[in-house]
Please model this.
Amino acid sequence: MSRKKIIIGLVVAGICFFIDGIYLKAKAILGQYLLETSWQQTLDGEIHVKPWPWADTWPIAKLVHSRLNEHYIVLEGATGRTLAFAPGLLSGSARPGKSGHSIISAHRTSHFRFLQFAKIGDIFVLTDQAGIDYRYKVDDIQIVDINDTDLIANNDISRLTLITCYPFEDLSASSSKRFIVSAILENST
Amino acid sequence: MNLSQIICAFTLSLLTLSVVQHTKADTPILLFTNDTAENSTEATLLDTDVNIFINGITARVIVNQKFKNISTEWQEATYMFPLPENSAVDHMKLIIGERIIEADIQERQQAKKTYIAAKQSGKKTSLLEQQRPNIFTTRIANIAPGEEISVRIEYQQEVAYDKGIFQLRFPSVVGPRYTPIQTIKEAAVTIGDDGFSQILPPGSIEISPIIPPTSQDKNCITINAKINAGIELASLESSYHDIIKKKISPGLWSARLEMDDTIADRDFVLSWKPKLGQEPKAAFFQHKQGEDHYALMMLVPGDELFKEGARLPKETVFVIDTSGSMGGASIRQARLALELAVKRLSVGDFFNIIEFDSNYTSLFQKSRAVTETTKQQAMAFVRGLVADGGTEMSAALLASLNNQQSLNRVRQVIFLTDGAIGNEHYLFSIIKEKLGKTRLFTVGIGSAPNSFFMKKAAEYGRGTFTYIGKVEEVSEKMQGLFTKLSSPVLTNLKVQWPENADAEMWPEKIPDLYQGEPLMIKAKLKSPQGTVSISGQTRDNLWNTSLNFSDQEKHEGIPQLWARQKIASLQDSIYEGANSGQVKSEITALAIKHHLVSKYTSLVAVDKTPVRPQEKSLISKKVRQNLPKGWDHYKTLGYPKTALRDDLNIGIGLLLLLLSAFLMIRHRGKMVA
Model:
């Protein structure tokens, strides 16, 4: 086998992997820009504004952590397709501002990478579709096994739970641990 | 090995790694992928032994779950299993050899605390929790290596009775089919491309690991039933299992599963039919508990009531949701259902089809007579339906209810949708205001994320709600709907209890009845004597009847059935705006009084003395269960997937580029040298 061919092969493979990785990153970053418009329309009173015509989801809230200067538009549903672009509010969990448990998850390599720096006492602000802000104060941070779903099972108290994969440094595409930040509703303004 | 071989091997392994990651990333969920296949020798096994005692229209069921720890470690086992929706679970016993420990009913969080405390102190303990009205879990802690432990669960349920046939169902496996049906509050379960939901609503269940297809261990079930029908029986059948049956007397039969090692992978359904002419038309059972009398009343309106006078021409308007959320399997189901319906239209009747997404389009401007030509046009229209756009339901709904041209027609609107809308209350108000003589039947398609909307809409529309979960069900479910559409309905049902009875009746609002369906009422009475009168009406007939009741035989379990019905009704009242905190405390008090497992109460049993030495650790295992018959091995539910391979791929890419740069430099160096 000629060495030249090997090198060319390696370069091509390298570029492919690199682009695939960058593509996923780009989706995560660009997604947020694209969502900004449909979020504005949502705030203006439209419902179920699809960010692009073939989308099967729509912006449902905005999540802000001011200490770390992180802000994300949250999409309805936490399917693989949704999470590529933005954090997703679990279908079936409480809508922001409604009583009950709101659960948002996102990828550890993109939107929720910052969660590792969250601290007890931090404030997350969740804005609902009507533009009303809800303040949640972090009162618990835990790492759990994926089989242990007790933490998200409780639907009685108005809480916000943020979920991402753990450990953050792990490169693989699957994980059996989840990093869970739990916050309790303070008051609505 | 030379350099190029090394590089090839290295590249290949990187590629393989990436492919593996990729496949994993595409599988929707990963709850039990690891502990199903490998650790089969360590798992706790389970056999289920079911004893069913049928007494008239109620049944007492005793379920024995046998756990065996075949490992060398102390174990905790968690087992999830289904029970009938209307089951009132009132007892659990933990059976350790000869000893029996009776469980207490406690508030859910309290029960969990009791269990965990006992578990940590090394005592044998078990906990029974309700995850959904029809899905429960048992947990048993501190099973010694090699030990066998049983948990005995008892519940009371009413027997189904329709068109002269009694039926009792024992579900034996929790399958993925349970996930889409339930919705919590107004939120929706999203179903992925593969037809499974990847996320469960909170307050929801975990699915047990599924036994991999290669495994020899299967959860086995034995079932024994004793049927004290109270009337002479013509036949006794089991739909999906072979049974051995014995007639002890004309009204007393027994049945058991033929195979001792039957695998628990499908529901057990037992049906029995009274001798011709012996079909019961009414029943009244009661039981005294404390100061109160509890009654279960059944009444079957006569068939002659459902005979109509002159048959009026029918006008059927189909409204089909073609919004984006109906894409994929849903629109296929809807098209199939519509085609079936169009085929069944009879000449002399009238029909129309309205489709809506962001706007609505109708097949004809107004309803037209059924002819071969119009049917053909309808078929072509249906086949051309595609799902895209938004969900503007109100305009289509108004259109279907507005054009009420002729009062001399029976008018039915059949609404096929997944109900992905957020303005339920506005739509309800349209239905209430515009319904007139029309009847609205809703057909939930696909994942039925908003079955609350569809059930309620059908209730306001005085029709029925039909749920179609998968394509294979379309024909059967639509058949059921057609039968209901073509038969008149008994509405406006009222039950008048004697004044001094001081009755508290559940359900408060009696649902409409179709031919053959019984009226089933549970009531708490101060005094068990007098006459109860019942009235209702069909389009052509008024119905009035009365029932004398007096101190009849003692019928255990009725108080639990009454309480279970009240709990279900209270739970529903949350959807109608009742305060959820208040409902919770009401249900908790009621469930504790009647010793019932509910959403807010659990049964917990604790042994007195610790058995597990403190230095030994406890291993927790989920008890694996069989897949429902016909289901493929699948990945099940849990947390959303939140890992991606982006960083990994960027890393691999950079590494490969670096490697090639290095090779290139070496290559050049050699050439120069």
